[in-house]
Amino acid sequence: MSGVPVSEDVFNAVSGTGWAVVDVETSGLRPYEHRVLSVAVLTLDTAGELVEEFSTLLDPGCDPGPVHIHGLTTERLRGAPVFEEVAEHIGTLLAGRVMVAHNAQFDYEFLAHEFARARSWLPVSQRMCTLALNRRVAPPTDDLKLASLAAHYKVPQQRAHDALDDARVLAGILKGSLSAAGELGLSLPLVACPPKQGAGYPPRVPKTPCAHRNPGRLAPGAPLVQGMKVAFTGDTRTAREELIARSVAAGLNVMGSVSRHTSVLVTDETDSDSAKFRAARSANVPVITEEAFLGLLAGVQPGTTHANTAPPAPVLPAQRRTGHPASTAPLSGRRILVLGGPHDHASTLRTRIAELGAAAAVNLSAGVTDVVLLADGAGDRRMPHITARGLPVHDADWLTTLTSPSGTAQEAGTTDPAGVPVLPRGGVLDLPTAHGGAGTWTVTAAWGHQTGCEIDVVAFILDGDEQVSCDEDFVFYGAPESPDTTVRLTTDGPSEQAVTMDLTSLPDAVSKIVVAAAIDGPATFARAGAIEITVAQGTGARAVAQATLDAATTERTLLLAEIYRRGPGWRVRAVGQGYDHQLAALARGFGVDVSG
Question: What is the pLDDT of residues 16-35, one digit of tens each?
Answer without folding.
Answer: 579 999 999 999 988 888 99
